[in-house]
Amino acid sequence: xxxxxxxSLLEDLVDGALPHERASEIQDHLAxxxxxxxEYSELRKLKELLRTxxxxxxxxxxxxxxxxxxxxxxxxxxHTTKSRQPERQERRDAFVRAVLSAAASLVVLxxxxxxxxxxxxxxxxxxxxxxxxxxxxxVMENLNTQIPSILPPEDRTRLAxxxxxxxxxxxxxxxxxxxxxxxx
Amino acid sequence: xxxSVPELVKSFIAGDQAAFAELVARYRRKVxxxxxxIVGNHLDADEVVQESFVxxxxxKEDLDSVNHFSSFLIRVxxxxxxxxLRRRKAHGGVAEDTTSLPGEIQVDLARRxxxxxxxxxGKRLMEEIQxxxxxxxxxxxxxxxxxxxxxxxxxxxAEMFDCxxxxxxxxxxxxxxxxxxxxxxxxRTVE
Lengths: 184, 191
Fold this sequence. Notes:
The complex is a heterodimer of chains A (184) and B (191).
Chain A: H1 3-14, H2 20-32, H3 34-51, H4 60-73, H5 87-116, H6 121-130, H7 132-142, H8 153-160, H9 175-183
Helix pairs in contact in A: 1-2, 1-3, 2-3, 5-7, 6-7, 6-9, 7-9
Chain B: H1 5-13, H2 17-39, H3 42-58, H4 69-90, H5 103-112, H6 116-134, H7 138-149, H8 154-160, H9 165-182, H10 184-189
């Protein structure tokens, strides 16, 4: 049996995939050939090393939580009070929320500054409501008076946090109602 | 009496949600383990675990023609893992920290290790092997992981990926040759 032929079968020998007779022949060759023996030894060690490669166990709690999340996304049962997407998606969403909040705060600040710089008190009220962004400050002035029907408590909180300015359901969507404020 | 996997799959296809939940419970660790070895970090492995089962749920009609649920599930997981690797490569990124788990999990693990020296040695070896695997192209990496780490046969792997067994043998041989070269020093220390 040649070394070349033996070495072509060493992986199968390591994998236990050779018929008994063939395996014996290879073993006989290995007993007399140090080169092939070294090759076989290294292959065996590699396989042993890989076999013992252990992934750090994230723990029973992680798997239970993940199962809950999978079921929430599939079966749709309310197995959990949290709704966590894959962690990477959660981080992305948190970043986007932070950026939007910061942008909304800047818009509110800009509105307040713009109103403060307006020249004529007579025109300021009319001008306020012509601009959706300026209307923000009008709404804020009237928050504690007559508008619970227009801005329910949760929206008022969101407005105070600068978050109501974004999107159709937010402040721009309520512009028509806010115009009425001026005429009450 | 505990239901067999084929029974659970049959029930799941018929609409039994509890059967699906049982399948998730039985295979979640396996999927995590395979995914982690391919993608190299906890965050991506977490994504693979969730997405794999969601995909299985949405494709339950395909399970009718599947011989082995486990192989099918692992195939879905490895394919999604490859997508993540491609996405990462396209963005020019590197794997996130290959061994770090969220803080609270690390603390829990630390409690379970006998001595700090054992923990350090074991962790270092794991990192070395993981880094060696990272250097392989996806197909060779996956073949080496599924065969030499997870213990699937060449026949099973060929069936999983619908390819000839000769292709699996070839990928495995190339993977082992490369790994032997990368881990040469380490192999000298193994008894």
